[in-house]
Design brief:
This protein is α+β, with helices and mostly antiparallel strands. About 15% of the residues lie in helices and about 35% in strands.
């Protein structure tokens, strides 16, 4: 062993001595027992949620368990929660635990309770939202059209122990995901003026679920609340429970919006009314849009109007003469329609409700069927009898009864209601035309001065003006294709008629001044097939529905396979007048033969599901529920927010927003009980009016 090499055992001994303090000191830090039984919480809780909120426009909620924060102060410690809505009477989860204290008699001064928050996850669903409370600062409340309340919001103050705070926040972030954000405000104890900071959740006017219409229109709010039901129960329960709390604990609550809305809701409930919401745009010259104030101002973008339908009577329910209330369970809206100046909807009980222009008796009753005196919103009165189909002409109405017979009312100057030469002037009560007595009808369509019918036997029959060939040559005449195919559908323009047979072929008759016949204009009184595969039935193209504007024609078609089954989405073909962009082709050139429409405009969009015709335009519904329009727009009927004509399909935007859902179409020209799936979007167009609503 070299004397120059250190002894290994000595080196090891030295290293051990150097490490000895670390071996004792470091573990002492790791295993020292805590001073308290639980870790000390931070001096303040996190002010904001852990990640950016994500809004789902279909479900209309924040997803991922995160909501925004508008708080400028840190969350108070201990955590205090101010409840002003359902938390006043229905705490759950952590807030219902005995360790959490709750105390009424607190108020948020400088804020007002407002019924202005859409609810799709608690008191409504995406296709029929309910309304729940938010809290608005005075300036926010005034800007939204509110008035008349003291600037305070009564509620309940909860105090949450530190060890439950995190779980409580997670629960509330989930509970308040319908557009709410965290905020920290001063709340005052009413008894002694004590002021503390408290967390609350409120929907500010810029949140995506804010429903400003409801702040200044308590009648509308009451109508929505009376009908809405969600996963947490009926909307009315939320309202009436909060009313009870305020009456028991509130100061000066007798004049607040909650009490006023509650009174209106009781009126609607006591009357047994069923509320439907109609969206409309365009001309309101004759009250077609049912504006609550009863004015005649046009709407250049969609507006929403709540109307009340009276309960089904035993007469309607069982066919007897007793007017007691029958069973409304399961009744839904089947279709919505627009004519020259009047409108209609049909429900699954067969009740037809009409409103608007009635100068010619086209509403089927001498008195105004809209009653604005008995309820907070307009009440529509139904026509007698049950109906399975309806169509509106310019100033007349065609009704297909439950018995299959056609009844007509309104302008009969050309015999379009009675079928008589020279007509009877006005027909003010729905009446069966003599030449169709006992004839069961499959579908019917009204034009400006004429009507057309497809009988159940498969024949075409026409009534009214023959001056331009739009009707068959003589009264009482019948027609069907030479090969015996049955006529299944009809549509009428101003001076022309379109006919669809069971093999998917399209025929036209009448005036061709703008190319609306889609063929050579020979024998105007005789239906002839349009040019090309739509008329011949060859080439694997089959028409499934037709509609007409004044001087243009639209056919919805499908390509078919060798076995005749559908092999493509619906395709829109059109022809005729186009001087106002009626056909959406980007120009104003007349189209004399059937031509595929909207190919470029919808290249990256969902397929077409339905097309309705205005007098001089089109309303298009896509399979994803979006609505687009083109054509004449003098009254804002295209719903684009202005009165400029559109030569190409333009999305309807602005104004009231219909629920965003996947929908099933209402086939406007299939007048017989379309049998819509629940919660689908129904559309109708005519004259200068667009209507849309949700079936429920």
């Amino acid at each position: 062993r070299s004397s120059a090499s250190p002894d290994r055992s000595a080196v090891a001994h030295i290293v051990a001595l150097l490490l000895l303090p670390l071996l004792f000191v470091a573990p002492a830090r790791s295993f020292r027992p805590p001073v308290a039984s639980s870790p000390r919480p931070p001096s303040s809780l996190p002010m904001s949620a852990p990640s950016d909120p994500v809004w789902d426009p279909v479900r209309q909620i924040y997803v991922g368990g995160t909501v925004p924060s508008h708080a400028t102060d840190p969350l108070p410690r201990p955590l205090r929660i101010f409840g002003y809505g359902s938390l006043c009477w229905r705490p759950d989860g952590v807030l219902a635990r005995p360790e959490v204290s709750s105390s009424p008699g607190w108020s948020a001064r400088g804020y007002r309770r407002a019924w202005a928050q859409r609810s799709t996850d608690h008191r409504g669903v995406p296709s029929a939202p309910g309304i729940v409370c938010t809290m608005l600062a005075e300036a926010e409340h005034a800007a939204a059209g509110g008035e008349g309340e003291a600037p305070l919001t009564e509620g309940v103050l909860y105090t949450v122990p530190d060890d439950l705070a995190e779980a409580c926040l997670a629960e509330l972030d989930f509970r308040e995901k319908g557009g709410y954000a965290r905020d920290v405000v001063d709340v005052v104890r009413d008894a002694d003026g004590t002021v503390v900071k408290a967390l609350l959740y409120r929907g500010t006017p810029d949140n995506p679920a804010f429903w400003s219409r409801c702040v200044g229109d308590l009648d509308f709010a009451a109508a929505i609340i009376s009908r809405s039901v969600g996963p947490s129960g009926p909307n009315k329960e939320y309202l009436l429970q909060l009313e009870s709390f305020l009456k028991a604990n509130g100061s000066g609550a007798s004049n607040c919006a909650t009490i006023q809305i509650s009174d209106r809701v009781r009126t609607l409930l006591d009357g047994g009314y069923r509320i439907v919401v109609v969206y409309g745009a365009g001309s309101n010259q004759h009250g077609q849009l049912l504006r609550p104030e009863g004015g005649d101002e046009d709407a250049h973008e969609l507006i929403e109007v709540a109307v009340a339908l009276p309960p089904l009577t035993v007469t309607e329910d069982a066919g007897n003469d007793d007017d007691d209330v029958g069973d409304d369970e399961g009744i839904s809206i089947w279709s919505v329609h627009a004519g020259g100046g009047h409108c209609a909807l049909l429900d699954s009980a067969g009740r037809a409700f009409l409103w608007g222009w009635n100068a010619c008796g086209q509403l089927g009753a001498p008195a105004d069927p809209v009653d604005r005196a008995v309820a907070p919103v307009p009440v529509l009165r139904p026509l007698p009898l049950r109906h399975q189909g309806i169509d509106l002409g310019h100033a007349h109405t065609l009704l297909v009864g439950e018995d299959g017979l056609l009844r007509a009312c309104g302008d009969d100057a050309h015999g379009q209601c009675s079928g008589k030469e020279g007509g009877e002037g006005l027909v003010t009560v729905p009446t069966v035309p003599e030449e169709l007595a006992g004839v069961r009808v499959r579908s019917a369509a009204g034009g400006v001065r004429h009507s057309a019918v497809a009988t159940e036997e498969g024949d075409l029959a026409t009534l009214g003006d023959r001056g331009r060939g739009q009707c068959l040559e003589s009264a009482g005449a019948r027609w069907r294709p030479a090969d015996g195919a049955r006529v299944v559908d009809v549509a009428c323009g101003w001076r022309h008629t379109a006919v669809l047979d069971e093999r998917g072929r399209v025929y036209t008759l009448g005036d061709d001044g703008h190319g609306q016949l889609g063929r050579d204009a020979e024998d105007p009184h005789v239906p002839r097939p349009v040019d090309g595969p739509l008329g011949s039935g060859e080439g694997g193209l089959r028409c499934v529905s037709i509609c007409c504007g004044w001087s243009h024609t639209i056919a919805l078609c499908q390509k078919t396979g060798e076995d005749g089954s559908a092999a493509s989405p619906l395709l829109a073909y059109g022809w005729g007048r186009n001087d106002r962009g009626q056909l959406g082709m980007g120009n104003t050139e007349r189209v004399a033969r059937p031509q595929l429409l909207f190919k470029e405009a919808l290249a990256d969009a969902a397929p077409v599901e339905d097309v309705e015709c205005f007098a001089e335009g089109c309303l298009v519904k896509l399979t994803d529920g979006r609505l687009l329009s083109c054509g004449w727009n003098e009254h804002g009927n295209l719903g684009t927010g202005d009165v400029r004509d559109r030569w190409t399909l333009t999305p309807i935007g602005g104004g009231a927003q219909m629920p965003v859902v996947t929908v099933v179409s209402d086939d406007h020209d299939d007048n017989i009980a379309p049998g819509q799936d629940s919660n689908t979007r129904l559309v109708g167009a005519g004259g200068a009016v667009m209507l849309a609503m949700m079936s429920d």
